[in-house]
Design brief:
The protein has twelve helices and nine strands. By secondary structure, it is an alpha+beta fold. 23% of the residues are buried.
Length: 342
């Protein structure tokens, strides 16, 4: 009798395990070399593709097929990065882990409603952001200043940094005033001449070695203005055009601790260039990883692509098709793509 009861119990367990096995893939959309990819992670990457189809070169006549194929490739890269990091024994620092957690919280706070509708969990989001951090860790492993593989020297990084970024201190004054009717009008000829003369004098004194903060204090005192004791340093790239399209080229030609005067949008500016590569500004250390990425990310991408291409991936089409349909219901595609895929 006991044997019979035991046999029935074991049979029930086997049946239960069979059902569990059949349902084990219900939350997974792909498998890459045995690594299960959750529906949420697949949705995350597919959603990015559908939101930016032009960036991924999706052909209108095979739009859905291309979207899935691209998602599959991105996820193979995701797995390749995780695998490479594991094999090389790379781990994130405490600060990097904190940054990942903070970025996850920030994105979730902003877009949780969208993520939840799409079926993306906070854990899925955390994993994708961690993967981004792992990629930067790989970049540092292969090419960082302390790399044992192919280090990029601090000197080269600083050179690239100064070509991409400029730091300036700014003194500004309007070339307009308000008339008795409340209208904004240009300064009269005498005021215009005096303002331009003042800024030209500031430029000459700065270029002759007078400390820029001393000039700033003197300027505020002469104009009866209230200002801070020292000027803030601002950092710009070539893409910044708030002071005119030729602003970057003009200022980047200046030597450090030299000034130029530029008029733009009814305002006159004194731009004083400073060396932002020093530790006192900390800008170089803030942007160093971005500079390293500019120099070496394409080479890292080749390594990742090679590894990804070696991986075998299987998509669960019943799941991926449902995910595609859900995403297009949440955010309908542009009419041209909708017409083709329907």
């Amino acid at each position: 009798m006991k044997k019979k009861i035991l046999a029935v119990f074991l049979c029930a367990v086997c049946i239960l395990l069979t059902f569990c096995g059949c349902g084990s893939n219900k939350n997974y959309a792909m498998s890459v070399e045995g690594t299960k990819i959750t529906n949420g992670i697949y949705t995350f990457y597919l959603g990015n593709i559908l939101a930016n189809p032009d960036s991924f070169g999706l052909a209108p006549e095979t739009f859905e097929e291309d979207a899935h194929s691209t998602a599959k490739q991105l996820i193979k890269k995701y797995v390749a990065i995780n695998t490479m990091v594991s094999e090389l024994g790379i781990s994130l620092s405490y600060g990097e882990k904190t940054d990942v957690a903070t970025e996850t919280d920030n994105r979730w706070d902003l877009f949780s409603s969208h993520y939840e509708k799409a079926g993306i969990t906070k854990q899925d989001l955390y994993k994708t952001i961690t993967n981004e951090a792992y990629k930067m860790a790989l970049l540092d492993y292969y090419y960082g200043e302390n790399s044992k593989i192919e280090p990029v020297s601090t000197k080269k990084l600083k050179k690239a940094f100064t070509e991409k970024y400029i730091g300036v201190k700014i003194i500004a004054a309007p070339l307009t005033t308000t008339d008795t009717l409340g209208n904004t009008v240009p300064l009269d000829d005498i005021e215009m001449k005096n303002t331009r003369s003042t800024f030209e004098n500031l430029r000459k004194r700065a270029n002759n070695g007078t400390d820029i903060n001393t000039l700033y204090t003197s300027y505020n005192s002469d104009k009866d203005l209230i200002g801070t004791e020292s000027l803030e340093t601002y950092v710009f790239t070539k893409s910044d055009t708030q002071y005119g399209s030729d602003f970057f080229s003009k200022v980047s030609k200046l030597d450090y601790e030299k000034a130029t005067v530029i008029e733009f949008d009814n305002t006159i500016y004194l731009f004083y260039r400073v060396d932002i590569t020093g530790e006192e500004y900390d800008y170089f250390f803030t942007y160093k990883n971005d500079i390293l990425a500019d120099l070496k990310l394409s080479q890292l991408n080749k390594k990742i692509d090679e590894r990804a291409d070696s991986l075998t991936a299987e998509s669960y089409s019943d799941k991926t098709s449902k995910i595609y349909k859900l995403l297009t219901e949440i955010h309908p595609l542009p009419s041209s793509e909708t017409d083709i895929t329907e």
